[in-house]
Every structure is written in C-alpha cells, then in structure tokens.
Amino acid sequence: MQALDHTRYLALREGAQVLEADGSGDKVLRLTDGSILKLFRRKRLLTSAAWYPYARRFADNCTALRERQIPCPTIREVYRIASIERDAVHYDPLPGQTLRQLLDSHDAADPLRSQLGVFMATLHERGIYFRSAHLGNIVLTPEHQLGLIDIADLRVYRRPLRKSLRLRNFKHMVRYPQDRQWLLDRQGEVFMQNYGRTQSICTPEELNSALQK
C-alpha cells in the first residue's frame, strides 16, 4: 500500500466526478481519465480493516478473480491517504453494463438469465463466494462475458463452495425487489436450469427453495 500525501491526492482528484458519497465524505470518484478512485473509511477502531484494509482486499480479490479467468476491474494502485484518514484503490472499471441496467431489454432477458445461471455456477465451482451478489454488481462486457464489480466483500476458497454457501448466496441475489422479479420470472426456471446443468451439488428443489424464500 502506497502512501499518498494530501497535495498528490488533491492533484489526482482534480476535476473528478463524485459518483458516490455519504455524510462522511466522498466514496467513489471518476477521475478525468475515466479511471475510478474508491475510498474506504474505517468505521470502528477495532476492526479487521486495521490490519487488512478494504482497499487491499479489493485489489487482492481482483487478482484472485483474474487468476480464475473472471472479468473484473484492473488495479492501478492501492493508497493510504493519512490526511483524510482513508484507504483507496485506484482502478480501471470493467467496461459494460450491469444486469440491472439491462432489466428492460426484454428480447435479451432469457439469454441473460441463462448466462447468469452458468456464470454463478462457474463462480461457485471456482470457489468464489460473492456476498454482495446482486444484479447491480454483475456486468455484461462488450465481449458478452459476465464479470464482477464492487468486490471488496468477496471470499475465495481453494475448493468449490459447499452447498450451504451456495444457497446463502442465492438468497443474497433476490434481496432487491427488481432483481427478484426479473430472476424469478416463470419461477426462475431459466436461471435454475442453467445453474443446475453446470454443477451437481445443489438440486433444483434446493435452489428453488433458496430463491423463493
């Protein structure tokens, strides 16, 4: 993690567009060259972020995903900005549109559900547990591949995920009403069939139960 002094930080963010902020300040900035600076605040004194900062986790998760051939952002640098008490990761965003942005593309709905089912099975088979899994964090790239963004909250295992983690992951995917309605069209048949044919750990009945709850 590289130290970034206040003068260099101000120069880096000059002319930036604020994409996300809260009462504590800026959270995500789009810099003038199109790259992203994502800022992380340690919310508590005693937290795992003190020895393993979220910015570092984000970067490490990108490395792990690329090793497993999953599209994701490209890291430029990880910073500690002492003057504003923030850690930051500077990266090039994954090009494309999120699945949530494509919800109204009715002609492509079933192909996307099919592709998403295969993609989620692939993640699970490669040991990837994405706790922030929802349609706003999954991107369809210009090459028609699916990839992940906003990946600080992700864990990578050496082996395929056990059944309990897979079912928990499905519950995360349907916690937003618009995502749930799209994913469970016709009782989620398209998604479940394509997930099921790519793995053999979760039965269709178990998957359906997890999604419907």
Automatic annotation (TrEMBL):
Going by the entry's taxonomy, the superkingdom of the source organism is recorded as: Bacteria
Q: What is this protein called?
A: Toluene tolerance protein
What species is this protein from?
Answer: Pseudomonas fluorescens
